[in-house]
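Table S2 (text version). Query chain:
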Amino acid sequence: MPNNIVMTITQRSAYTLLALLLAACGNGAPQEDRRGGIDTGKIHRWKMVTTWPANFPVFQEAPEMFAKNIRVMSNGRLDITVFAGGELVPALQVFDAVSQGAVEMGHGSAYYWAGKVPAAQFFSTVPFGMEQKGVEAWLYHGGGLELWNELYEPFNVIALPVGNSGVQMGGWFNKKIETIDDLKGLRMRIPGLGGKVLDRAGGNPILMSGGELYTALERGTIDATEWVGPLHDLRLGLNRAATYYYYPGWHEPGAELELLINRARWDSLPADLQQIVKQAAAATGAWTFSAMEYHNSRALKELSGKKNVQVLPFPQDVLQALRSVTRQTLESEAEKDPEFKRVYESYLAFQDSYQPWHRLTSKALETE
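Corresponding structure-token output:
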């Protein structure tokens, strides 16, 4: 046998042995998938903080389910630990914690950061604005999501939609609302743009955490409160503190929930994990909205059967007056803030183009 053939066989044997040794020693090291350059070995351990109390139905369940699903889909490569509001950071400091990189993720709703980013309120809810279908059509297909992330870019935060509350209730009142004048001087817990509208209508909006609502309403510290809908209102016992339960939730026709992600940590994820996060967020969004519709319908039946509860519609002239005040409020806010104006114009243009379709379909099918 020629010497060069012997050398070739010897070299190949050495290379094969070396490859086997490296494979045996490399079980704990990240591996490269040649098909996509995917890091299949590194484990990313992240923290998520939320604005919701522990065990808060649906809203706190959703991020916990989201984390569990990602753990399964990523085969444990992205391991997210979820903390309820106050467990790791105060509920209303979630945005700052994600922005500063203290945690990797947050879950809440954008109007909580209105003091820092006024235009963010459009990505939560707008009085007399679009419901879940319209909001998400704007976000995913009408340029809304791009605007959302442009707005958060200076804060090193990425946002993804992760659910919607659906149309909320108008709130609990200790007196009947028969004319717009009945709102004057009314002390009501109501956040966001809805609070600004109430203020312009002569009311007194008050910010207050959910844990304080029952006592404040029962003792007369406030005259009225909105919370979410029948599911959460019943759990909080608000029916024991007020008699009149008004609808519809003109101030929150479809509150979108958001997933906040620190941009630097997002950029550190391989492409497949980023895609898993996006798909898990979309799936969580579908579950959240359907869960709210399911539980609210059943809780409303229970509340309606209670002797002391009167479920009443806001009079049409009150709603018309509030609609007019809403437009004035939005235009006033837009004059003060160029970013608010830019997002408002996008939202309004999409809403105007979407409404004819909505009227001919969902709206036309509505029956008493």
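Notes on Table S2: Confidence is low (pLDDT under 50) at residues 1-36. The two ends are 95 Å apart (CA to CA).
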